[in-house]
TrEMBL record:
Subunit structure comment from the entry: Forms a heterodimer with MurT.
Gene name linked to the record: gatD
Protein name: Lipid II isoglutaminyl synthase (glutamine-hydrolyzing) subunit GatD
A Pfam family: GATase_3
UniProt entry keywords in alphabetical sequence: Cell shape, Cell wall biogenesis/degradation, Glutamine amidotransferase, Hydrolase, Ligase, Peptidoglycan synthesis
Biological pathway: Cell wall biogenesis; peptidoglycan biosynthesis
Length: 246
């Protein structure tokens, strides 16, 4: 992002990929930037539009199998997201969006080619993972506990080019042990909720990457904290052991 221009945030294919309130990720990211005085330009690029390759941040959301395969096909043919990533754009991808930035993913009984932007691939798990997802984030990122809601049939396998975003205390995530993936400029997660509302520190990490700033002024996170605490208390009430979770 250059200093005199707005931060350009693109939500890719809201008409295909948009489940469980994932549009909230766009709203939260844009609002947390604006509250810091960072001008923002949000764009929703639908399936029949070319994906711009010169934006700063790209958001991909969840989707059912059929829309996910269509989205992958269109994105591969379009090429805009690949060009953007090659220019250093940041990608925040949730669930179906997370799976389709890997080399391949499973849907409707077979494997489909993904965009192969990051070192991960997905196949089908033995059961659907549905419910709360929580766990400590990779200490290298110094973020608080990840909390979210998951609903997916896929399981994701990480290569050496990415690191797990979190380890799983509650839920399934990638495989019951790790959840999501990251490398500088990329975060993938199975967390809906939306993820950036339940994890505002993750939104700020994306903003720090996008602006090149080492730190951002703190915001009033009262309502995010209430939501986080309510969700974590619900897990504790169900006897989930979160003691080892920061
Ligand atoms: N919630 C989602 O995005 C689901 C992703 C994918 N269709 C799966 O079931 O694994």
């Amino acid at each position: 992002m250059s200093t005199d221009s707005a931060l350009r945030i693109v939500w890719v294919y809201p008409d295909l990929l948009s489940t469980y309130g994932d549009r909230g990720n766009l709203l939260i990211l844009a609002q947390r930037a604006r509250l810091r005085g960072i001008p923002v330009q949000s764009e929703e690029i639908r399936t029949d539009e070319p994906i711009p390759s010169d934006a700063d941040v790209y958001l991909l959301a969840g989707g059912e199998d059929a829309p996910q395969t269509l989205a992958a096909e269109r994105m591969l043919a379009d090429g805009g997201l690949r060009r953007a990533v090659e220019h250093g754009a940041i990608v925040f991808a949730v669930c179906a969006g997370y799976q389709l930035v890997g080399s391949s993913f499973a849907a409707r009984g077979r494997q489909y080619a993904g965009l192969d932007l990051y070192d991960l691939s997905s196949d089908r798990g033995p059961s659907r993972a549905v419910g709360e997802l929580a766990g400590p984030v990779d200490p290298a990122l110094t973020l608080p506990l990840l909390t979210g809601f998951e609903n997916h049939g896929g399981r994701t396998h990480l290569g050496p080019g990415v690191r797990p975003l979190a380890t799983v205390s509650v839920g399934v995530g990638n495989d019951g042990h790790t959840e999501g993936a990251w490398t500088k400029g990329f975060i993938g997660t199975y967390a809906h909720g939306p993820a950036l509302s339940r994890n505002p520190a993750l939104a700020d990490l994306v903003l720090r990457w996008a602006t090149g700033r080492d730190s951002l002024e703190p915001l009033d996170d009262t309502w995010h904290d209430k939501l986080r605490n309510e969700r974590l208390a619900a897990l504790a009430a169900r006897g989930k052991d979160l003691r080892h979770v920061a």
